[in-house]
Amino acid sequence: FLEAFESLLRFAENRTSSLFETAYRPVAKEAAEPVKELFTDLSLYILGTATTVESAVLRFFDSLFPLVYSGLINPGMTELSEDYRECLRLTRQDINPFGRYSKNMVTELSKSLWASRMLSQALSLGIEVINTTEHAALTKECSKALVKMQYCPHCQGLTLIRPCVGYCLNVMRGCLASVSELDAQWREYISTLEYLTNEMAASHDLEIALMGIRNSINEAILHAQLNGPQLSATVDKVCGHPKKREGNLPSANLVPVKEVAETQTFMMAHTSLNNKRREFINYMKRSRTFYASIAERLCDGDLVMRDSSTCWNGEDVV
């Protein structure tokens, strides 16, 4: 799952970078780092770190505004000082140059990434539970009962006699009483996983949300450009008047366009994650009764005598 998440995030990052390289080339070089930071933050959020989608998205738009303002709204500006850039970043929060698009992006991503984050944490919890119960300590009484069940017939020379099914079940249920108590919680856990995977495939579709980042950023930049004169007037009052240079931007600032096979790559990642979701939850649903039936599973097969009328009941051969 994490590999599929990372694959989708990297694809969406490349797709977003290509927007700047094709539509907003004057700022593409400087925008590369904020784009990278945005998707790194989103990846860390899915992994469960103490961050939020809102802080990641707003931090990205804070970093983007100085680039858009100097490179697209006022393309004749000289290199901005760090103080002026910081003033632009702070002003972005007050004048909202990107309109509703930044908040819309927060809303859409928060819903989808929440389900992915919860599923990631749920899988980690499941691994922890399984690893813990795999090494459950046996009590002294349990060890004695297991020895009696497996080896006491040998004292009578009955090395080929195996325990009776009912006897095995009694011993195993006694040994695994603490483990079987997990049954109710494990069933609830499986139901939660089923809910999360269904949410991810429905209203919280991660793929659709990630693919929408490029369009949201594009609409936000267009909105800022459309309101350029008003933004410039406000910024001039708050941050002052930076100097302008004559001539065109140097060609060194232009970034070559990369060809991205978007549709094919996205479909592969989308199909991969959908298949993983479907296969995983079907497999997990089959384990719904695992902790309730663990004694039955252990007393099945070669451990006990099933097809013969002769077996060991703990006291004698019956």
UniProtKB/TrEMBL annotation:
GO terms for cellular component: cell surface; extracellular region; plasma membrane; side of membrane. Pfam families: Glypican. GO terms for biological process: cell migration; positive regulation of canonical Wnt signaling pathway; regulation of protein localization to membrane. Keywords: Cell membrane, Glycoprotein, GPI-anchor, Heparan sulfate, Lipoprotein, Membrane, Proteoglycan, Signal. It is a lipid-anchor; GPI-anchor. The keyword Membrane applies. The keyword Repeat does not apply. It comes from the Eukaryota. It is found in: Cell membrane. Cell surface proteoglycan. Belongs to the glypican family. This is GPC5 protein. It comes from Bucco capensis (collared puffbird). The gene is Gpc5_0.
